[in-house]
UniProtKB/TrEMBL annotation:
Keywords: Hydrolase, Signal. It comes from the Bacteria. Residues 460-620 form the PA14 domain. Belongs to the glycosyl hydrolase 3 family. The keyword Flavoprotein does not apply. The keyword Lyase does not apply. This is Glycoside hydrolase family 3 C-terminal domain-containing protein. One of its GO terms (molecular function) is hydrolase activity. Residues 1-17 form the signal peptide. InterPro entries: BXL, Fn3-like, GH, Glyco_hydro_3_C, Glyco_hydro_3_C_sf, Glyco_hydro_3_N, Glyco_hydro_3_N_sf, Ig-like_fold. It comes from Granulicella cerasi.
Length: 899
């Protein structure tokens, strides 16, 4: 979602607002239903006030006692952009846990911290973006193509896995009482949305009716019908010629008529603008017509400002005030159910203290999630690492010391994240840890300037720069440097995310200054390209400013008022070094904004040959190489301004490991030292060469603030990996359809016919498991009845570990005109077993799980002989270590199901 508005809104607190409301107003009567209260409140508003309340940044209405409220909050894997919060693995990593109850608990943590932040904000009269209780998560789009940069935000490629994890996350967010939710979940993006990012504002998708109902809608149905999500977000793209946020099919027929949705719909940010913008859909004549189109189909709130033209639309007869009332009442029903018009002390959620943010229990759960997300892809026996065997370990690669590689996108702000290389130093105190960046993510991509070339002074052996943190001067933040620093320390690198967070104790998040000073020692003489990357929220750089001086000469500066930098987060500059001696460097950074946008990263585009030579030298000195490779959310993500080999606009044009990293792996392997490859990434990678040559491969995803510790604990065997792939790892893109082709033929494990590198559902363990034969409740099932399957899982190894039991259903060969997937996941359970322990698992398949979708999109249970498989992988996965067990049964008769 494009960040259109990033200003803090200060308004009256609920208590003060209520005091200004009309005496005995029905909308303040807690004995009335939320619907009655909302109807009364909206009836008192002017048309102009209603239009303003339809915006995501809804202003206060003092005469009615209505406080300001911003509907935009992000909680994909932790409360984002709102100060320090518990950071869980990126959503794709959460999916790799295959642990639905854990995902529910994560949702509960996210909403509890949202309440803690909201309660504290209201107590301080702050009503701002990212501090509300309407959380725009989860992203339950299907990750249909590994090239999509936002696939990292999803739960993978399978509708059932996505549906079950999304269902549990929603239940965790909203809590057990639908009339009094802890927060409001907003599954997105409805619907048929998964790139390309460059075309999302104008792309029209026309999937077959089979693909629509078999792949693109089931998880949304689960979220709304079973999860009772109170909100939903419509997508940017068009479906069958109409923008999703103007689609009567999606928002009328399917959502409200078929699924009986009673909550509110929010647009993706700028999606209503796309109705009329010339570079987008060109669906509406102008803003007034766009506003009318959105309201009439039920897009209730507009992320953006287009709905300000609703009064104009009413005057032109495009929409009635009653139509607007319907939408505004839905919005206020949600706010009333959340308790926003009641005294916080009168209900339990209103009393959640700020101390719940990053509580010890929440942090422990984040570490558990990071551990459970680890997927072991290859192991020739080197893992777990033998204690004391490796005296010198070379930790090499662009993700060895990357904060972004832990965070992913739409992330919470971690308070004390430990980078992977530091986790190795902590976990192997008796070993010497050698670190080298080794390569860029891709040729031309910037990397954080590493600690190895930075020192507080020319004669110091300490790595990093002297860092002085100053309280912001109230009149002019630039004068802060004249004060004494609040804190002085050494920062190994300049790579910080302080989104509404104070960098150190004693500073305020709104205004502060930092000076880093010391020396930089270039590895060779010559020209170097540097880069200063500002925080995520780039339109929020109200008064962001920095200067960089090398050898006393200012080489770059940034001020938001400079038009050259107004639209960029990555100001670049070049420096020529005549030698390899230490050169003085000073970076001064000031932040002066109401709430958001703080953070800075000092980057460079290093020379490939020098980096690789340094890595090989250190590898030769080591007993073990740990290559930290993969991707970065700076390269794959939402509508990014990136165009490099293999990357375009946030998407990828190829899924192979970028050439710079592949060359590094080959050079490291040539040393003859044992090598473990650790991937940090948000999507599938064709690591074909690594699979053939590395001793082990571990996929860690973007693993959250405890990702470094989870990686090390997994390599050491403290954590026995049990994660499973939520996506297919293909060998390349050659066998895949065009990225812009939304037909599911030859996509995902359900329809792909080629040979894969690693299959969906694949993952190894340090122990072994065995499955008993499958017991079915019946061999002949009448259409419309449920089927139960039972199996016993035994840990046959010598280590305690988790097993993920996966149930796949295979329809009769050639049935349904050959449209149905060859197999489909219809059940999964993650269990923990001690050595020798066993557990009996029961799966229940309802008629919808046993159904098929025909060419017209009709859903029905069909007769024939079906096969069911339960095991630790797909039934015929040759790489799996555990044999799956299968059974057959027959469905007699047929039964049609509702959409």
């Amino acid at each position: 979602m494009r960040l259109l508005v990033c200003s803090a809104l200060f308004a009256l607190s609920v208590a003060t607002a209520a005091a200004q409301a009309p005496a005995a107003a029905p909308y303040l009567n807690t004995k009335l239903t939320p619907e009655a209260r909302a109807h009364d409140l909206v009836s008192r508003m002017t048309l102009e006030e209603k239009a303003e309340q339809s915006l995501n940044t809804a202003p206060a209405i003092p005469r009615l006692g209505v406080p300001a409220y911003d509907y935009w909050s992000e909680g994909l894997h932790g409360m984002a952009r709102s100060g320090y919060a518990t950071l869980f693995p990126q959503a794709i990593g959460m999916a790799a846990t295959w642990n639905a109850p854990l995902v529910s608990k994560i949702g509960e943590v996210v909403s509890t911290e949202a309440r803690a932040k909201f309660n504290d904000a209201v107590a301080h009269n702050v009503h701002s973006i990212y501090l509300g209780l309407t959380i725009w998560s989860p992203n339950i789009n299907i990750f249909r193509d590994p090239r999509w940069g936002r696939g990292q935000e999803t739960y993978g490629e399978d509708p059932f896995l996505t549906g079950q994890l999304g269902l549990n996350f929603i239940r965790g967010l909203q809590g057990p009482d639908p009339l009094h939710p802890r927060s409001v979940a907003t599954p997105k993006h409805f619907a048929v949305h998964s790139g390309p990012e460059n075309d999302r504002h104008r792309f029209n998708v026309e999937p077959s009716q089979h693909d629509l109902w078999d792949t693109y809608l089931p998880q949304f149905r689960t979220a709304i019908v079973e999860g009772k999500a109170d909100s939903i977000m419509c997508a940017y793209n068009a479906l069958y010629g109409k923008p999703a946020c103007a689609s009567d099919l999606l928002l009328g027929k399917i959502l409200r008529d078929d699924w009986k949705f009673t909550g509110f719909v929010t647009s993706d940010c700028g999606a209503v603008d796309d109705f009329f913008e010339k570079t987008a859909h060109r669906y509406s004549k102008d803003a007034a017509h766009a506003s009318a189109a959105g309201i009439l189909v039920g897009t209730d709130t507009n992320c953006g400002t287009t709905y300000k033209t609703l009064p104009q639309a009413v005057k032109q007869g495009l929409v009635s005030e009653a139509d607007i009332d319907r939408s505004i009442e839905r919005l206020f029903v949600a706010r009333i159910r959340l308790g926003l018009f009641d005294a916080p002390s009168s209900y339990a959620y209103g009393r959640i203290p700020y101390s719940e943010d990053r509580s010890p229990a929440h942090l422990a759960m984040a570490r558990k999630a990071s551990e459970e997300a680890m997927v072991l892809l290859k192991n020739d026996g080197i893992l777990p690492l033998a204690p004391g065997r490796y005296k010198t370990i070379a930790v090499i690669g662009p993700n060895a010391a990357s904060l972004a590689g832990l965070e992913g996108n739409y992330n919470a702000v971690p308070k004390d994240p430990q980078l992977p290389v530091d986790s190795f130093r902590k976990a192997f105190p008796a070993s010497k840890i050698l670190y080298s960046q080794g390569s860029s993510y891709a040729d031309g991509a910037p990397l954080t300037v590493p600690s190895t070339v930075l020192h507080p002074s020319a004669d110091s052996q300490v790595e990093g720069l002297k860092a002085e943190y100053f309280a912001g001067d109230e009149t002019d933040v630039a004068k802060s440097f004249a004060k004494s620093p609040v804190t002085t320390r050494v920062d190994p690198i300049v790579d910080f995310d302080w989104n509404y967070a104070a960098p150190v104790a004693g500073l305020k998040p709104q205004k502060f200054a930092v000076r880093w000073s010391g020396v930089i020692t270039p590895p060779s003489a010559g020209d170097y390209e540097f880069n200063m990357r500002l925080a995520h929220c780039y339109p929020c750089h109200d008064n962001e400013h920095f200067t960089v001086k090398i050898d006393g000469k200012q080489v770059d500066s940034y001020d938001v008022r400079d038009p050259e930098y107004r639209e960029t987060t990555t100001p670049r500059f070049d420096v020529h070094f005549a030698d390899t001696m230490p050169h003085a460097v000073v970076i001064e950074y000031t932040h002066d904004a109401p709430l958001y946008g703080a953070g800075l990263r000092f980057e460079w585009v290093p020379k490939p040959a020098l980096m690789q030579d340094d890595a090989v030298t250190k590898a030769k000195q080591s007993d073990l190489i740990v290559a930290m490779m993969g991707l970065s959310p700076d390269l794959e993500g939402e509508e990014l301004k990136v165009k490099l080999e293999g990357f375009d606009g946030g998407d990828r044009t190829d899924i192979k490991l970028p050439a710079s990293q592949e060359k590094l792996l080959q050079a490291l392997a040539a040393t003859g030292k044992p090598m473990i490859v650790v991937l940090l990434n948000g999507s599938a990678l064709a690591v074909n060469w690594a699979n053939d040559h590395a001793n082990a491969i571990l996929d860690a995803w973007y693993p959250g603030e405890f990702g470094g510790a989870a990686i090390v604990d997994t390599l050491k065997g403290i954590n026995n990996p049990a994660g499973r792939l939520p996506i297919t790892f293909y060998r390349g893109v050659d066998e895949l359809p065009s990225f812009s082709d939304y037909a599911m033929k030859n996509r995902t494990y359900r329809y792909f016919t080629g040979e894969t590198l690693y299959r969906f559902g694949y993952g190894l363990s340090y122990t072994t498991f065995a499955y008993s034969p499958v017991k079915l409740s019946t061999k002949k099932l009448a259409a419309g009845n449920t089927l139960t399957a039972e199996v016993t899982v035994t840990n046959t190894g010598k280590r305690a570990g988790d097993e993920v039991a996966e149930l796949y259903l295979m329809p009769p060969a050639g049935s349904n005109g050959g449209l149905s997937p060859k197999l489909a996941l219809e059940g999964f359970q993650r269990v923990s077993l001690a050595p020798g322990a066993k557990k009996t698992l029961t799966f229940t398949l309802d008629p919808r799980q046993l159904s098929q979708v025909d060419a017209a999109g009709r859903i029905s249970v069909q007769p024939g002989e079906y096969k069911l498989s339960i095991g630790g992988s797909q039934p015929d996965d040759a790489n799996a270590k555990t044999k799956a067990q299968s059974a057959t049964f027959e469905i007699e008769g047929s039964m049609a199901l509702e959409h």
